[in-house]
Design a protein that fits this description.
By secondary structure, the chain is α/β, with parallel strands linked by helices. The protein folds into 2 domains: 113 residues, no CATH class; 220 residues, Spore Coat Polysaccharide Biosynthesis Protein SpsA, Chain A (Alpha-Beta Complex), CATH 3.90.550.10. A 7-stranded mixed beta sheet has the order 3-2-1-4-8-6-9, with helices on both faces. Strand 1, helix 2 and strand 2 form a beta-alpha-beta unit. Helix 1 runs parallel beside helix 11. One of its GO terms (molecular function) is glycosyltransferase activity. This is Glycosyltransferase. Belongs to the glycosyltransferase 2 family. Its EC number is 2.4.-.-.
């Protein structure tokens, strides 16, 4: 057996594994039809933590205020801003009696720690069900609270939603950002359906007050500057207590980064946080990335060497075709179908980007909350 024969056998095994993964794992989410849940009658606290977000609050807060839900408060947390964020909050509060402001001053022990500010906001909230979003985020319908909270039950105390990014025409960076976002969402939604929920995003996340305080809040990872959303979900989510909400009315939309360097900085924070996930989740994510990398790397070696190139090319096309169907259906479900034809290109670019970020994080620490 030659070295190339050995590489070919490994490549075939990887293709076989990925096909099974797409058909029997990600396929479950792709074919999922979520039934509409009955509207819940409990009050809700919508919690928004803002640091130097005066302009974004002016733009996006009205869409939260316009929600059609019957009983909810909006808890606005001013996290030691040095612009006029507090004044903007007070302006909205003077016109809407369901807005509560929590003004957080810098604390020496928790300097610049968003989790400290969020904890104070949560403690000030008067309702037992929390719904979180960001200051630069807007719900895409006035049914956002209704749809997200409809998935709460006596057993389901954590609800994972989809937080998409706004489209920017003729921008490759925007497509890459949205592709990475939708692929991450497909992964955490699918894992949640299989009882292995490992993360959520603070742009669209809900859980109960009881869940927060039983876990002692963020205390287990309070020294990690990021992760108020994904690390908390990673800590508290179980196969019994977590639900997903993927109705279009439940989506939120955020402003994407506009420069590649800003996005890389953001992704460095996210990737550095993942090392604090439970070990089983770290292993699963690393295997997923490794198989993606090896698929393209080994395919390139075999095709360049023209080693059984017909078989190799056929396997590449079969894998991509199955990926197109499964990921394409999932993208359509999440309102990102315009990315469909760019799947292989964006996947390759993302693999290279994540590898670069991983190496960079080994040599220097990323920046965190503003």
């Amino acid at each position: 057996m030659t070295c190339l024969d050995f590489v070919c056998y490994i490549f075939v095994a990887i293709v076989f594994f990925q096909i099974l993964l797409y058909l029997f794992f990600f396929g479950r989410f792709a074919l999922l039809k979520q039934k509409k849940k009955p509207v819940k009658d409990f009050p809700v606290s919508v919690i928004i933590c803002a640091k130097n977000e005066a302009e974004n609050l002016k733009t996006f807060l009205p869409s939260v205020i316009a929600q059609a839900y019957h009983d909810y408060e909006i808890v606005l947390i001013n996290d030691a801003s040095n612009d006029n964020t507090l004044e903007v909050m007070e302006g909205f509060a003077s016109k809407h009696n369901n807005i509560k402001i929590v003004d957080v001053k810098n604390n020496e022990a928790f300097w610049g720690n968003k989790k400290y500010a969020l904890t104070l906001g949560i403690k000030a909230s008067k309702h037992d069900h929390f719904l979180f979003t960001d200051a630069d985020c807007k719900p895409l319908s006035n049914q956002w609270i209704t749809d997200m909270t409809s998935h709460f039950s006596s057993k389901r105390t954590v609800v994972l939603g989809y937080g998409k990014y706004a489209k920017v025409k003729k921008s490759l960076l925007n497509k890459l950002i949205r592709f990475e976002t939708v692929i991450t969402a497909i992964q955490y939604f699918t894992c949640a359906k299989f009882g292995m929920a490992y993360m959520g995003v603070g742009r669209n996340l809900a859980y109960t007050k009881d869940t927060f305080f039983k876990a002692n809040g963020f205390i287990n990872h309070i020294k990690v500057r990021s992760g108020d959303d994904d690390l908390f979900v990673n800590q508290v989510a179980t196969k019994h207590n977590t639900a997903i909400c993927i109705t279009p009315n439940s989506f939120t939309e955020s402003l994407p980064k506009t420069t590649f360097s800003e996005w890389i900085t953001q992704k460095r924070r996210h990737i550095s946080t993942a090392k604090h996930y439970k070990q089983k989740h770290q292993v699963l994510l690393m295997l997923q990335y490794s198989f993606q990398f090896l698929f393209w790397f080994l395919a390139a070696i075999l095709l360049i060497a023209m080693h059984h190139w017909v078989v190799v090319l056929a396997l590449v096309l079969i894998k991509i075709s199955i990926q197109y169907v499964i990921i394409g259906l999932s993208m359509k479900k999440l309102g990102e179908k315009d990315l469909f034809f760019l799947i292989p290109f964006l996947e390759l670019f993302l693999i290279f980007t994540h590898l670069t970020i991983f190496i960079k994080n080994l040599t220097s620490k990323p920046n965190h909350w503003k």
